User: Fold this.
Amino acid sequence: MLKTIYFITDRNLTLSDSVSRYIIDLSEALAKGGFNVTIFSSSEAKRSDYVLPQNVNFSNEMPDPADRAIFHFHLTYTIRAHTQFLFDNVSQLKNKSIVTLHVTPEYAIQMVQQASMIKILSFISEQSLLVQVFSNYSKYDLKKYGLNRVAVVYPGLNLSRYQEYLPFTKQKKRQILVVASNPDALFVRNIKGFNFIETIKKTYPDIKVKEVINLSFSEYLKAMAESEFYIALSKLEHYGLAIIDAYNLFTIPIYSNEGGLTEAIYGNGIPIYTEGTKVFLPKKLPYTEIDARYNYLFSQTEHTIEKHMKNMLSVYELIKP
Assistant:
C-alpha cells in the first residue's frame, strides 16, 4: 500500500467543524503511524483556528494529480474547487482515489442541492470510484443512485481532546444542550430538528433548554460536559460525531430514531419518534450516572481514532494504483 496519503477538502483547519475535525484527527493518527500525510484545502470554508503538528503538511493548493499517493477526497454535495479538481483529473486519479461522502443524498435534496448531488453521484458511479461512508444508512441511501463500491467504516476521533473537560462533568446541570451554527437556517429548522424544540420545552418545563450558536470548540465541549442531555434530532444524519462527544463527556443523547443516528446510539440514549408533525416523547427524562458511564466506557473502546485508522487502512488496501 502507498505510504503517502493526501486529504483533499474545502475546509480550513478547525476543530469547530465536524468534517475538518475528522480529517485533522485521522491525518494526525496516520502521520504518527509512519505515513506521509498532507491536507490540501481549497479553503472555501473559511473558519480556521488550529495548527497541525509538524509531521502533517498543509497546502492551500491542489496537489499534482500525477503524484504517487492515495488521494482521499472529502465531499459534500456542493461542487467546489476540490470537487472540480477530481472531475478534471479523474483519468489520472481514478485508480488511486477514495471519496468520503459526509452527507446523505436525502440531506442534499432537503437542502435543494439535488442537481449538484446527481452530478457528483453520477460521476462517481460512472468512474467506479471507491466510496467510504460512516453508516449503513448512508450506504443504502447511495445504492439508489447506482453506487456499489461503498465501504462502511464507523468513525473515530482523538478521544484525548476530552481530558481537560472531564472536571466539568462533575458539575452537571439539569439542562438539555442544543447546538447550531444558525438557528434560522433551513437545515437547522427542518433537518437538524429545531422544529421540535418548542415541543420539548413544553414537555419538560422543569429542565432548561440551553440553545447555543457558533461556539468555539472549547466552549462547545465545556457546554456539553456541563449538560445532562444533548439533543441530536436530525432525521438525515449520516452518523453524528457529536454523539461521540456526548458519550465521552457523560452526557445522554436525545436523538431522532431515524437515519444514521440509530447506528451511532449503541449505548444509552433517549429516542424520539415522529409521525408526520407529531412528536412522541417520553414523559420523563431520567439521567443516571450508570447509563452515562456505560456510554463513556463503550466509546472509549469503539470510537478511538486508532481503531478507525486501522479500519481505514483496510479500505485503503482496496486501492490499486
